[in-house]
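Q: I have 199 residues here and want to know how they pack in 3D. Can you give me a structure?
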Amino acid sequence: MKFWPYLSFIVILQLSLSKVMAQTPKLVVTVPANLKGFVLKGYDVLDLTKGDLNRDNYPDAIMVLYKKGEEKTSDVISHPEKRPLLILICQPNKTYKLAGRSENAVYCVDCGGQMGDPFTGITIKNGYFSVEHYGGSAWRWTRIVTFKYSALDKNWFLFKDGGERFYAITHEEVKTKVSTVKNFGRVPFENFDIYKDKK
Protein backbone atom coordinates (compact mmCIF):
# COMPACT_ATOMS: atom_id res chain seq x y z
CA MET A 1 0.00 0.00 0.00
CA LYS A 2 3.05 2.27 -0.22
CA PHE A 3 1.89 3.66 -3.57
CA TRP A 4 -1.15 5.45 -2.07
CA PRO A 5 0.79 8.49 -0.71
CA TYR A 6 2.53 8.80 -4.09
CA LEU A 7 -0.78 8.54 -5.96
CA SER A 8 -2.36 11.17 -3.69
CA PHE A 9 0.58 13.47 -4.31
CA ILE A 10 0.20 13.09 -8.10
CA VAL A 11 -3.55 13.82 -7.95
CA ILE A 12 -3.04 16.90 -5.76
CA LEU A 13 -0.21 18.12 -8.02
CA GLN A 14 -2.37 17.75 -11.16
CA LEU A 15 -5.29 19.57 -9.55
CA SER A 16 -2.99 22.37 -8.38
CA LEU A 17 -1.41 22.74 -11.81
CA SER A 18 -4.79 22.82 -13.54
CA LYS A 19 -5.99 25.50 -11.11
CA VAL A 20 -2.88 27.62 -11.70
CA MET A 21 -3.16 27.25 -15.47
CA ALA A 22 -6.83 28.27 -15.38
CA GLN A 23 -5.92 31.40 -13.43
CA THR A 24 -2.96 32.36 -15.63
CA PRO A 25 -3.73 35.73 -17.24
CA LYS A 26 -3.85 35.86 -21.03
CA LEU A 27 -1.04 37.59 -22.87
CA VAL A 28 -1.83 41.07 -24.13
CA VAL A 29 -2.05 41.06 -27.92
CA THR A 30 -1.06 44.28 -29.69
CA VAL A 31 -3.76 45.12 -32.24
CA PRO A 32 -2.94 47.61 -35.03
CA ALA A 33 -5.28 50.60 -35.40
CA ASN A 34 -6.64 49.34 -38.74
CA LEU A 35 -7.83 46.11 -37.06
CA LYS A 36 -9.24 47.38 -33.76
CA GLY A 37 -12.65 48.02 -35.32
CA PHE A 38 -13.18 44.26 -35.74
CA VAL A 39 -13.00 43.52 -32.01
CA LEU A 40 -16.55 42.80 -30.83
CA LYS A 41 -18.02 44.60 -27.84
CA GLY A 42 -17.41 42.65 -24.64
CA TYR A 43 -14.55 40.69 -26.22
CA ASP A 44 -10.78 40.93 -26.32
CA VAL A 45 -8.13 39.52 -28.67
CA LEU A 46 -6.75 36.08 -27.84
CA ASP A 47 -4.54 35.78 -30.92
CA LEU A 48 -3.66 37.78 -34.02
CA THR A 49 -1.68 36.11 -36.80
CA LYS A 50 -0.76 37.61 -40.17
CA GLY A 51 -0.04 35.90 -43.47
CA ASP A 52 -1.23 35.54 -47.06
CA LEU A 53 -4.64 33.87 -46.80
CA ASN A 54 -5.83 34.35 -50.39
CA ARG A 55 -2.49 34.33 -52.26
CA ASP A 56 -2.58 37.95 -53.39
CA ASN A 57 0.68 38.87 -51.60
CA TYR A 58 -1.04 41.18 -49.11
CA PRO A 59 -0.64 40.64 -45.33
CA ASP A 60 -4.04 39.22 -44.33
CA ALA A 61 -4.87 38.37 -40.73
CA ILE A 62 -6.73 35.91 -38.55
CA MET A 63 -8.05 37.27 -35.28
CA VAL A 64 -9.31 35.02 -32.50
CA LEU A 65 -11.49 36.72 -29.89
CA TYR A 66 -12.55 35.68 -26.40
CA LYS A 67 -15.37 36.90 -24.20
CA LYS A 68 -14.12 38.86 -21.20
CA GLY A 69 -14.53 36.76 -18.05
CA GLU A 70 -14.93 33.54 -20.04
CA GLU A 71 -13.08 31.57 -17.34
CA LYS A 72 -16.02 32.15 -15.00
CA THR A 73 -18.90 31.66 -17.45
CA SER A 74 -17.75 28.88 -19.79
CA ASP A 75 -18.98 25.34 -19.16
CA VAL A 76 -17.51 22.83 -21.59
CA ILE A 77 -20.42 20.42 -21.08
CA SER A 78 -23.52 22.60 -21.30
CA HIS A 79 -22.41 26.12 -22.25
CA PRO A 80 -18.95 26.56 -23.79
CA GLU A 81 -18.15 30.25 -24.33
CA LYS A 82 -17.54 30.41 -28.07
CA ARG A 83 -14.45 32.15 -29.42
CA PRO A 84 -15.04 33.92 -32.74
CA LEU A 85 -12.39 33.45 -35.42
CA LEU A 86 -12.30 36.25 -37.98
CA ILE A 87 -10.69 36.04 -41.43
CA LEU A 88 -9.55 39.55 -42.35
CA ILE A 89 -8.34 40.29 -45.87
CA CYS A 90 -5.94 43.16 -46.54
CA GLN A 91 -6.93 45.60 -49.26
CA PRO A 92 -4.50 47.55 -51.52
CA ASN A 93 -5.10 50.67 -49.39
CA LYS A 94 -4.01 48.71 -46.25
CA THR A 95 -7.53 48.55 -44.81
CA TYR A 96 -9.07 45.18 -43.94
CA LYS A 97 -12.29 43.47 -44.95
CA LEU A 98 -14.07 40.71 -43.01
CA ALA A 99 -14.12 37.69 -45.34
CA GLY A 100 -15.21 34.97 -42.93
CA ARG A 101 -16.29 34.36 -39.36
CA SER A 102 -16.91 31.26 -37.26
CA GLU A 103 -17.64 30.63 -33.61
CA ASN A 104 -17.00 26.91 -34.02
CA ALA A 105 -13.38 26.78 -35.19
CA VAL A 106 -11.65 27.34 -31.82
CA TYR A 107 -12.22 25.34 -28.64
CA CYS A 108 -13.47 27.03 -25.46
CA VAL A 109 -11.23 28.02 -22.54
CA ASP A 110 -12.13 24.93 -20.48
CA CYS A 111 -12.17 22.44 -23.36
CA GLY A 112 -8.62 21.29 -22.63
CA GLY A 113 -9.26 19.35 -19.45
CA GLN A 114 -6.60 19.53 -16.74
CA MET A 115 -4.12 21.10 -19.18
CA GLY A 116 -6.20 24.29 -19.14
CA ASP A 117 -6.90 26.42 -22.21
CA PRO A 118 -6.26 24.14 -25.23
CA PHE A 119 -5.72 26.84 -27.85
CA THR A 120 -2.06 27.04 -28.90
CA GLY A 121 -2.18 29.24 -31.99
CA ILE A 122 -2.83 29.86 -35.67
CA THR A 123 -0.46 29.07 -38.53
CA ILE A 124 -0.83 30.70 -41.97
CA LYS A 125 1.04 29.70 -45.12
CA ASN A 126 0.31 30.12 -48.85
CA GLY A 127 -3.49 30.19 -48.69
CA TYR A 128 -3.72 27.59 -45.92
CA PHE A 129 -4.37 28.25 -42.24
CA SER A 130 -4.41 25.89 -39.28
CA VAL A 131 -6.08 26.15 -35.88
CA GLU A 132 -3.99 24.29 -33.30
CA HIS A 133 -4.97 22.81 -29.91
CA TYR A 134 -3.37 20.71 -27.17
CA GLY A 135 -5.03 19.31 -24.05
CA GLY A 136 -5.83 16.39 -21.78
CA SER A 137 -4.45 15.11 -18.48
CA ALA A 138 -2.59 11.78 -18.17
CA TRP A 139 -3.78 11.06 -21.70
CA ARG A 140 -2.87 14.04 -23.90
CA TRP A 141 -4.26 15.00 -27.27
CA THR A 142 -3.54 17.41 -30.09
CA ARG A 143 -5.89 18.62 -32.78
CA ILE A 144 -4.88 20.62 -35.84
CA VAL A 145 -7.61 21.73 -38.24
CA THR A 146 -6.43 23.09 -41.60
CA PHE A 147 -8.38 25.10 -44.17
CA LYS A 148 -7.40 25.80 -47.80
CA TYR A 149 -8.33 28.81 -49.92
CA SER A 150 -10.23 28.27 -53.18
CA ALA A 151 -9.66 31.10 -55.65
CA LEU A 152 -12.64 29.89 -57.69
CA ASP A 153 -15.04 30.11 -54.74
CA LYS A 154 -13.21 32.93 -52.96
CA ASN A 155 -13.63 30.97 -49.75
CA TRP A 156 -11.78 28.57 -47.44
CA PHE A 157 -12.63 24.89 -47.19
CA LEU A 158 -11.73 22.21 -44.67
CA PHE A 159 -8.56 20.51 -45.92
CA LYS A 160 -7.38 18.33 -43.04
CA ASP A 161 -8.50 17.55 -39.49
CA GLY A 162 -6.28 15.42 -37.31
CA GLY A 163 -4.14 14.92 -34.26
CA GLU A 164 -2.54 12.53 -31.82
CA ARG A 165 -3.42 10.87 -28.51
CA PHE A 166 -0.66 9.65 -26.22
CA TYR A 167 0.09 8.77 -22.62
CA ALA A 168 1.92 11.74 -21.08
CA ILE A 169 4.19 9.84 -18.70
CA THR A 170 5.74 7.39 -21.18
CA HIS A 171 4.70 8.89 -24.55
CA GLU A 172 3.84 5.35 -25.56
CA GLU A 173 0.74 4.20 -27.39
CA VAL A 174 0.74 7.22 -29.68
CA LYS A 175 -2.35 7.09 -31.86
CA THR A 176 -2.60 9.36 -34.89
CA LYS A 177 -5.84 10.04 -36.72
CA VAL A 178 -6.15 12.36 -39.72
CA SER A 179 -9.25 13.00 -41.83
CA THR A 180 -9.12 14.59 -45.28
CA VAL A 181 -11.56 15.69 -47.98
CA LYS A 182 -12.02 12.00 -48.87
CA ASN A 183 -13.55 11.50 -45.42
CA PHE A 184 -15.60 14.65 -44.80
CA GLY A 185 -16.27 16.01 -48.31
CA ARG A 186 -16.41 19.68 -49.22
CA VAL A 187 -16.91 21.69 -46.02
CA PRO A 188 -16.86 25.53 -46.16
CA PHE A 189 -15.06 27.26 -43.27
CA GLU A 190 -18.32 28.73 -41.93
CA ASN A 191 -19.94 25.28 -41.75
CA PHE A 192 -17.17 23.55 -39.83
CA ASP A 193 -17.96 22.74 -36.18
CA ILE A 194 -15.07 21.68 -33.94
CA TYR A 195 -17.54 20.77 -31.18
CA LYS A 196 -19.05 17.93 -33.20
CA ASP A 197 -17.40 14.56 -32.80
CA LYS A 198 -15.15 13.58 -35.67
CA LYS A 199 -16.33 10.59 -37.70
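Q: Anything worth noting?
A: The chain is about 15% helix and 40% strand. The mean pLDDT is 88.
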